[in-house]
Amino acid sequence: MVSIIKEKVRLWVQIIFTAVTNGYLYGFASGRIYKGPLKAACVPGLNCYSCPGALGSCPIGSLQAVLGSRDYKFSFYVVGFLLFFGSLFGRFICGWLCPFGLVQDLLYKIPFPGKRKNLPGHKVLVWMKYVILAVFVILLPLLVTDIIGQGSPWFCKYICPSGTLGAGIPLVLLDETLRMAVGKLFSWKVFLLAAVVIVSLWIYRPFCKYICPLGAVYSLFNPVSLYRYKVRKGQCTKCGKCKEVCKMDIPVWEKPNSPECIRCGECLRACPRRALVRQSLRRYR
C-alpha cells in the first residue's frame, strides 16, 4: 500500500509540474505563444518554447538558439542552468519533472502485448543520445550556417518529438494559415512522434533511453549530484530485486548512480533489506 502511494506521489508531481510549466491556457485557446517575461527563463525538463501553453523555455532549445546565432556562440545562463540543476539532481529531473517523460510513463501503462524494458541492441543504443547531443545540438548549429551566418536548431527542427506534440500539432490545429503551409518536414516530425508513441507502448521510455540530449546532459551528473543513491554493502545480499523492478534495467546494487537512472525510486521500495538509500537525505558513518 505504501509503495503504491509513493508511486502515485511521483505521478502527481509530474502532472502538477507539467500543468504549472504549461499553464498558459489562453495560448491553447487562441493559438498564440506566450512571450512574456517568464519565457526568458528555462525550465528543467524538455518544454518547447513554441508550445501554446509554455510559460518557460526548454534548455536544449535555448542552447541551440545561442549556438546558432550569428552574434553569440556561448550562453553562460543556459550552461550555468544545466550545471546547477545537474549537480543538484542529475536525472531526477527526467523521472519527476519532464513533461515528455510523463507522456512516456502514461503510454507504458497502456496494456500492450510483449512489453519489455529495452530495445534489442540496448547497450549500444544508449550511446545514441550522446551522439545526438554532440552532433545535432552542438556541432551542426555551430558549423552549418546560412549566408548571414545563422545556424538552425537542428534537434528541435528535425528530431524533437516533444516539440511536435506540445507545439507543432497544437499550433497547426489552431492556425489555419499554418495548416495550409505544412509540408514534408512537418510530416517527418509527426512520423517520428508516432514512432516514439508506438514504441513507448512496448518499451519503457525509449526517448529517454536512446534519444534525449537533455537526458544525456543530466546523466553525466548522476554519479556526483547532490541527490544520489547509496548501497549499504553490509546489508545488500545482491538478491537482484532492485533490477527486477527497474524499468531502466540497471543492476542497482552495482551501479546505484548509473547514468541511465531516472531516480523513480522503485528500487528503493523493492529492496527487502533497505540496503538502498537516498544519500542526500541521510548521514552515514
Structure description:
53% of the residues lie in helices and 2% in strands. Helix 6 (99-109) crosses helix 12. The chain contains 16 helices and two strands. It has helices spanning 2-21, 25-30, 59-67, 76-89, 92-96, 99-109, 122-125, 128-143, 154-158, 161-174, 176-181, 184-202, 206-210, 213-219, 241-245, 266-270; strands spanning 229-231, 276-278. The mean pLDDT is 93. It folds into two domains: 2-219, no CATH class; 231-281, Alpha-Beta Plaits. By secondary structure, it is mostly helical.
SSE blueprint:
Elements: H1 2-21, H2 25-30, H3 59-67, H4 76-89, H5 92-96, H6 99-109, H7 122-125, H8 128-143, H9 154-158, H10 161-174, H11 176-181, H12 184-202, H13 206-210, H14 213-219, E1 229-231, H15 241-245, H16 266-270, E2 276-278
Antiparallel strand pairs: 1-2
Strand content: under 5%
Number of domains: 2
Enumerate the spans where pLDDT stays under 50 for 5 or more consecutive residues. Answer: none
- How many β-strands, per DSSP? 2
Roughly how much helix do the residues carry, as a percent range? Answer: 40-55%
Q: What form results from the Cα inertia axes?
A: globular
- Note the main sheet: 2 strands, antiparallel
**Whole-angstrom Rg:** 20 Å
